[in-house]
Amino acid sequence: MTETAESRSARPLAVVILAAGAGTRMRSDRPKVLHQIAGLSMLGHVIGAARALAPARLVVVTGHGAEAVGAEARASAGDVALTVCHQAEQRGTGHAVLAAAPGLDGFEGDVLVLYGDTPLLRSETLARLVAAEGALRVLGFETNAPAGYGRLVIGAEGLERIVEANDATPEEQAITACNSGVMAADAGVLLGLLAKVEPANAQGEYYLTDTVALARAQGMAVSAVMGSEAEMQGVNDRVQLAAAETIWQAGAREAAMRAGATMRDPASVFLAHDTTIGRDVEIGPNTVFGPGVVLEDGARVEAFCHLEQCRIGSGASVGPFARLRGGAVVGSDCRIGNFVEAKNTIFAPGAKAAHLSYVGDAEIGAGANLGAGTITCNYDGFTKHRTEIGAGAFIGTNTALIAPITVGPGAYVATGSVLTEDVPGDALALARTRQVTKPGRAARLRALLSARKKGA
Ligand code: UD1
Ligand code: CA
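^ inputs. structure came back:
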């Protein structure tokens, strides 16, 4: 009886992610799969794609930097049943899948093998591979730059074998059909084939890719499912890391624009893996989003802003040249202007800090106005202190608020004040020395100084 694609895709699925390699070509102290794309580790991206398939099990194979890689796997796995298996010695991708066997104990169903260094794969593509025909299914792609990838040797009867770049003859190196590294097969079939793999190759490694020729030799149906090159970008060095980032950013910008955001120069907008962008949001050029940013419908981010872990409300406008850090919440219709930095601060709707301010550990009431150069002095070198400014308060320019401090609603603080005490609501506070003006004294002073200079 031949299985249909539907019956197969309904089978239980286990995803195995290989993440033990040293990543030598990265020349890094950090394990390769923990290098980031759009502010999330490559492993995090791969686990995200795997989770979208709702697998019954997830197995991550660790080796180099096992502790950190295992921790990242646990942080990313959510509610999927995760086993972290250790591959003490990295003897190849086939060896690595065998190291995952304890995590597959008692499992019956399909196994999908992913590499932790192939971060752009979309879950739709993975689902297509899982549902494809064939005992062994390989995800491949066509490219003009096949260097470094395993090549798919496709004959009259389909995929015959995969030859690694290091083992390929010049003719085989000319092949442009490449292996993404992703493979799907019945768990028992795959482990059975892997038991027969020998390290008879240039690198002396147990290649997962050798299972293809072994399966064919046993008369099994093997298929290659082709996908887009951009999705299959493997990352072995920092140049490929940058290439993967570029591809990811292009996809994310396009998705944001298709969902109703305007970007005047999309190529200079750098998004994070979790940036949330509402409808009719406008994003200016040269803007950088760290993780955790939410832009509500109709928010505007002007040019040269740097935002992370913050929320911009509907109709609010930020920048140009604003920096919003962790815990900054900008309410609807607020205006945060140039050279304003805010951290751990809530701006209630309609509040304004239009120029040159630092606002940290603060709560700014609705419609309050912070003049140019308003600084919350929130840190005494040991502890952070809070500043509270009530609704409708007016803080004159160049005011320093020495926290902890409260300025009541509707209060008015004179320009140039250094506030050390709370100001009640609707009070006027002047915390500066009174001006002294002496008529004619400038001319006398000049004469005096000039005479002194001549005499010297
Ligand atoms: C591999 C494939 C190649 C494919 C390419 C796609 C093999 C033999 N080659 O080559 O056909 O075109 O990926 O990007 O499979 N790993 C372990 N343990 C090991 C060895 C590797 O966990 O012992 C992990 C690595 O951490 C990495 C992944 O497996 O995440 C791939 O290993 P890598 O050495 O990068 O393989 P490639 O040479 O890129
Ligand atoms: Ca690789």
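The mean pLDDT is 96. The radius of gyration is 31 Å.
thumbs up if we can close this ticket
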